Amino acid sequence: MKKMLCALLVMLAIVPAGIGRAQEGPYDVEEHTVLLDGQRIYGLLYLPRERREPLPAVIFSHGFGGSHDVGDPYARALAGMGYAVYCFDFRGGSPGSMSDGSVLDMSIMTEADDLTAVLDEIRSLPEVDEDKVFLMGTSQGGVVSAIVAAHRRQEVRGLILLYPAFVLVDTAQQFYKSADDIPETSFHLWMTVGRAYFEPLLHYDVYADVAAYTEDVLILHGDADGIVPLAYSEKAVSVYPSAQLKVIEGAGHGFYGEDEALALDAIAGYLDARLHTEPTNGKE
């Protein structure tokens, strides 16, 4: 499995960027827009060509300052395994976002609203089995996925978090003691954000919030991550009712090459197991 995934990732790496790459695999890629409060959420929908509908689906959420492109290697691999996959840009998620909205209005709470709208949309598609939808997110997108899974737990079959940035709450609370201390704009990590980014985090207990999700959770994290320390995922495992942490040795904040293949191997195994497990969320 590991060698097969490595070969797939190498093949994808040498194909030029763009929707035309759909012809390189047994799937089609099409633009799909979701509307929320009169604004567009732009995304790409990956659909296996040969399929028995309805399909299990994975919704991929990118991290801080990222875009739907981050999910492309995962989406292509999973679509090749028979999953419908949707990768999208958060509103105001980055200066180059293809969705509407401003980075100055973005926060994990607005992103949670975006993902909730996307979840409703993907579950409504005729190609998708509404009872077999998974959330998957990297870094900040992992935190957002965790929040939405907890709030919509009856509708999320499983949750995959890649180096989730639970550190962002501590960071905000270390930077600012009160809302009055937050400037209108500030340069954070690699882009300018507005006060809306930090303000919701000042009195927020993210672990208490996400722990409401009771299905099995898969967390993948590198032990050389210089942006989000591994300890934050170790704590997440301790607060979730059912979670497993796979540590990828030597990996930083992002998985590439062999690390990405290892991650995909773990993700494929997790998804297959969840599809054959009766969900418990919402049941007494």
Mean residue pLDDT? 91
Instruction: Please write the string of helix (H) and strand (E) elements.
Output: HEEEHEHEHEHEEHHEHEH
- Spatial shape: globular
Order of adjacent strands in the largest pleated sheet:
1-2-4-3-5-6-9-10
Describe the largest sheet: 8 strands, mixed
Oligomeric state of the chains in view? single chain
- Given helix and strand content, the structural type is alpha/beta
Total E-strand runs: 10
Distance between the terminal alpha carbons, to the nearest Å?
38 Å
Range of strand content: 15-25%
Give the SSE layout.
Layout (H helix, E strand, L loop, with lengths): L1 H12 L13 E10 L2 E10 L6 E7 L10 H9 L3 E5 L19 H17 L3 E11 L1 H12 L6 E5 L4 H9 L9 E4 L2 E4 H4 L7 H5 L6 E6 L8 H9 L3 E6 L9 H18 L9
Parallel strand pairs: 3-4, 3-5, 5-6, 6-9, 9-10
Antiparallel strand pairs: 1-2, 2-4, 7-8
Helix pairs in contact: 1-9, 3-4
Give me some keywords for this one.
9 helices, eight-stranded mixed sheet, 10 strands, alpha/beta, 33% helix, disordered N terminus, two-stranded antiparallel sheet, 284 residues
Summarize the structure.
With 284 residues, this protein is α/β, with parallel strands linked by helices. It has helices spanning 2-13, 72-80, 108-124, 140-151, 167-175, 195-198, 206-210, 231-239, 258-275, and strands at residues 27-36, 39-48, 55-61, 84-88, 128-138, 158-162, 185-188, 191-194, 217-222, 243-248. Helix content is 33%, strand content 24%.
